[in-house]
Design a protein that fits this description.
The complex is a heterodimer. Chain A is an alpha+beta fold. Chain A has one domain. Helix content of chain A is 52%, strand content 16%. Chain A has four helices and two strands; from the N terminus they run αααββα. The longest helix of chain A is centred in the N-terminal third of the chain and has 18 residues. The model of chain A has no long low-confidence stretch (mean pLDDT 75). Chain B is an alpha/beta fold. In chain B, helix 1 crosses helix 13. Chain B has a single domain, classed as Rossmann fold, CATH 3.40.50. Helices cover 41% and strands 16% of the residues of chain B. The chains are: A alpha+beta, B alpha/beta. The interface between A and B is medium-sized, with 16 and 18 residues.
Chain lengths: 86, 271
């Protein structure tokens, strides 16, 4: 570890501060608003179940919130016709 | 006419009850007439911290339901005669507490006391919302730790929307009380600093209570630290916080426990 690194290592508190600032900025904006992820999940599910029979357990929704951009990942296991026929 | 203060936090275990007892006692020791109310129905503890657990006859719910008069339910502290406790019910369901009932009790207390301090239960549910409902001021207790600060932010949101004052377009004066602060760890970058906490919550500071063994020793014997060990660092911090609550301008220095020659030679040091 170089001398420079020693000065750079400032403990875990700055990490805590940054995480909190990011999280609270998001939570303050979304207070008293419906949960976006839950809403999207429900609506997307409604569209899919109109066409195929999908078990709730076969849907996985993950979200990763970033400072400038978030990703919403929806993973649905749709049984194909052949398997469903069995 | 009393000032109604809620001591709240969202998160449990950060020191709401300890702070209610210590601030209440500190105000009473300064000659103010103080009533502390335990809103934690079913899990009361303020009686225990104040050493009055064997003297509880009636409780808050008895009073709201008219079973007992307020004067019958209030327990006068044996050490400071201007400090009174209104305990929570240990056996009743928390739904037994109604907004109307609480409103009546608070209105009656307002007439008779200088300060009414409401010890909120943890969480953001009904009990916590009733405890803050009629508050003029709020002391938000937080530890310098991520989950506690996040919950404090949530509580600030509720104070700005669900209190009677907020609904009337007025606002509740909010203050942060940082408890269990370890200046040495903060200086090493291992703990959120006071500036970090205040920056994130953008709310003024009422006081910094240092981590201190005296707090546990005092709750062990059922006495607020301001009565049990008045010279202890945490006690001094509570005395100063109580003075700020009364509107006094007290400079913010972190009290430290003085021990040994070294500390005596160098006096008070922030770290």
């Amino acid at each position: 570890m170089s001398l420079f690194d020693m000065f750079k290592r400032r403990g875990s508190a700055p990490v805590a501060r940054d995480r909190l600032q990011l999280l609270l900025a998001y939570e303050r904006n979304n207070r008293n608003q419906p949960d976006l992820v839950a809403m999207l999940r429900e609506e997307i599910m409604a569209v899919i179940t109109r066409h195929v029979q999908v078990d709730q357990d076969d849907v996985r929704v993950t979200m990763d919130r970033g400072a400038t951009m978030s990703t919403l990942e929806i993973d649905i296991h749709i049984p194909n016709a052949a398997a469903a026929a069995h | 006419m009393a000032k109604v203060v809620v001591v709240t936090s969202g998160k449990g275990g950060v020191g709401k009850t300890t702070s209610t007892a210590s601030l209440g006692a500190a105000l009473a020791q300064a000659g103010k007439k103080v009533a502390v109310i335990d809103f934690d129905v079913g899990l009361r503890n303020l009686d225990l911290v104040l050493g009055a657990e064997r003297r509880v006859v009636f409780d808050l719910i008895n009073v709201t339901q008219g079973v007992a008069k307020l004067s019958q339910a209030l327990i006068r502290d044996k050490r400071v005669d201007t400090l009174f406790l209104l305990p929570a019910s240990q056996t009743r369901d928390k739904d037994a507490l109604t907004e109307e009932g609480v409103a009546n009790v608070i209105a009656e207390l307002r007439e008779k006391f200088d300060y009414v301090i409401c010890d909120s239960p943890a969480g953001i549910e009904r009990g916590a919302q009733l405890a803050m409902r009629f508050a003029d001021e709020a002391v938000i207790v937080t530890n310098p730790e991520v989950s506690s600060v996040r919950d404090a932010d949530r509580i600030i949101g509720l104070l700005d929307s669900r209190t009677l004052r907020a609904e009337r377009g007025e606002s509740v004066n909010k203050y942060i009380l940082v408890t269990r602060y370890d200046a040495a760890r903060a200086a090493r970058g291992e703990m959120l600093t006071i500036d970090d906490v205040l920056d994130i919550l953008s709310t003024p500071l009422l006081g910094i209570i240092p981590e201190s063994e005296g707090v546990l020793r005092s709750s062990n014997v059922g006495s607020p630290v301001t009565l049990n060990e008045p010279n202890n660092a945490a006690a001094r911090a509570y005395f100063e916080a109580a003075r700020r609550l009364q509107g006094e301008d007290v400079p913010m220095v972190l009290p430290v426990d003085r021990r040994g020659l070294f500390d005596r030679l160098f006096g008070r040091r922030a770290a």
